[in-house]
# Entry
Amino acid sequence: DKDTKGKDEL
Amino acid sequence: MNIFRLVGDLSHLLAIFVLLLKIWKSRSCAGVSGKSQILFALVFITRYLDLFTNFISVYNSLMKVIFIASTVATVYLMYIKFKATYDSNHDTFRIEFLVVPVGGLAFLVNHDFTPLEILWTFSIYLESVAILPQLFMISKTGEAETITSHYLFALGSYRALYLLNWIYRYYFEGYFDLIAVVAGCVQTILYCDFFYLYITKVMWGKKLSLPA
# Structure
């Protein structure tokens, strides 16, 4: 369920 | 990026600057919990360690810098410049009772057992309870300045908007992060009592005072 784009949220 | 997250980030930015301006203009931090501000500074510092290693976008990097700088500036104003107006008698929440359990939980429940990921998880868990000293302080003083209640409304709204952002991203991007969502729900639920008072009182021009 992890987002592939890494931490893209603040 | 979607409208919920953008409005959420702007609401977060607004909250931080409303507080910073309140303290700067009134040259007083009466009614503001310095402990919550320290926790928020810790939240941003532990969350944005990838500021220099993981470039997402100009917007992302710029906001991270602004959040860290403005929160550190707020802590500076409260504990150094306007220290005389800091109400330490009412700001008595034991933040070690937050930091230690949150730190332990971040070690136990995370997506990846690496330093950066554990610090990010710690930051997410800590943010969900970082407002408690402020809410505790208001319950002790029994009231809050109107500007402080606007600050809290904007701050509480930001994570509520993030919940909508996560619903949007789940359906349109298949993005889902259980840790962020659960912590975001806890964080938003902690504001419910305040939201009720804000909407029933402050919206009608009354002062926010807790039932004694």
